[in-house]
Each structure stands twice: as C-alpha cells, then as structure tokens.
Amino acid sequence: MLLFADALKESFLQFFTQTKPLEWAGVITGILCVWLAAKNNILSWPIAIISVIIYTIIFFEAKLYADMGLQVYFFFMNLYGWYFWSNNKNLEEAKSPVLSITKKEILLSILAVIAFTYILGNLLHYNTDASFPFIDSFCTACSLVAQVFLARKVMENWLIWIFVDIIYVGVYFSKELYPTALMYALYVYIAAVGYTDWRKIYRTQHD
After folding, report:
1. Residues 184, 144: contact at Cβ < 8 Å?
2. pLDDT for res 167
3. 3-state SS of the chain?
4. Angle, to 10 degrees, between the axis of helix 157-174 and the axis of helix 178-205?
5. What is the mean pLDDT of residues 79-90?
6. Region 48-53 average pLDDT
7. Distance CA 75, CA 56 (A)
8. For 177, which of 20, 65, 195, 202 is 20 to 30 Å away at the CA?
9. Given its phi and psi angles, is residue 16 left (phi above 0), alpha (psi -120 to 50 degrees) or beta?
C-alpha cells in the first residue's frame, strides 16, 4: 500500500512540475474542442486544428508514430468538418441533422479497423522503434472511423470515442504523459454527454 501511495505521489509531482507548456496547451485546446463538438458548436473545428498541430509534435517526441500520423489526418478532417458544418448551418433541420449509423457502415468500419491495425501495426513493429505498435495502430484505426462519423454527424461516433479513449488513458499514463492521460479520461465523460445530447436531437428530428 505504501509503495502504491509513493508511486501515486510521484505521479502527481511529475504532473504538476514536469509537464511541458506545450502539453498543457494541447490539453486545454483538446478538451475545449471536444466539449464544443459535443454541444454541436462549430467553433470546435478551428480549435481542434490548433490542438492537432500541438499533438503532432508531442506524439513524435513520445515515439507514438501512429498517433502522430493520426493528427495529420485529424487536421484535414477538421477542415472538412468545419466546411461541412458551415455549409449546413442555415438549414432548418438542425445545424445539419444528426444521423444514426447503418448496418453497412458498422460492417465496413469493423473490416477497416482490422485491416488498418494489421497493416500499420506490422509496419511500425518491424520498421520503427514505436511504443505499443499494435495497440497504437488499433486506437488510430478506431479514431479514423470515429472522426469520419463525427464530421458527418453520426451520433454513434461518441460510442467509439468512449471505447478508444479508455484505452488511450492507459497508453498515455504508461508514457508518462499524465495531463494528456487525464484529458482522455475527461474525453470519456464528454463523449458520454455528447452521445446523450445527440441522441436527444436525433429523436426530436424523428418525432
């Protein structure tokens, strides 16, 4: 018990004294953009662009190369999401309507995650010094799918984020990225709120 208490104390000490300002900036912008997305606010997208630029640098330094590459993808998807939401903001339906996932989308998503995890995981495992190549690749694959659904306003995107963010919490704690790990723990809560709110919107649209 004492060993655990000492380890916990050391973790909090590192959290407050050794975290770089760049990571704090990533945490603040990351939390803000996800919260705004959950609240259906278009300002989520420009703030998200700032966040992914910051985390591209952070993940490169942590040797989480799949996550680093994911930020590049997020950058372009954030531009697309900003464009898509902007073009639909004047529609009466709902600032662009909330959708529900189809059976075809579920099947394609599962196949895409399996294929992406296998291919990227092997590439990272055999060709780089990446940490957790297969776990990192799996989380990246799930995030790719979730981001597409978020940009298209498919409400089940939040369920995918809940699942993958729980895994990310463990990964980032193991890499001593403590503020980032706590940010992802908060993401789990925000994603749950997002799903609840979007489901209410979806039901209102179909009443």
Report:
1. no
2. 94
3. CHHHHHHHHHHHHHHHHCCCHHHHHHHHHHHHHHHHHHCCCCCHHHHHHHHHHHHHHHHHHCCCHHHHHHHHHHHHHHHHHHHHHHHHCCCCCCCCCCECCCHHHHHHHHHHHHHHHHHHHHHHHHHCCCCCHHHHHHHHHHHHHHHHHHHCCECCHHHHHHHHHHHHHHHHHHCCCHHHHHHHHHHHHHHHHHHHHHHHHHHHHCC
4. 180
5. 78
6. 94
7. 10
8. 195
9. alpha
**How long is the chain?**
207
d(CA 120, CA 190): 29
Greater model confidence, 164 or 93: 164
Task: Output the pLDDT for position 182.
Answer: 85
Mean pLDDT lowest among 43-57, 78-92, 190-204:
78-92
Res 1: pLDDT: 47
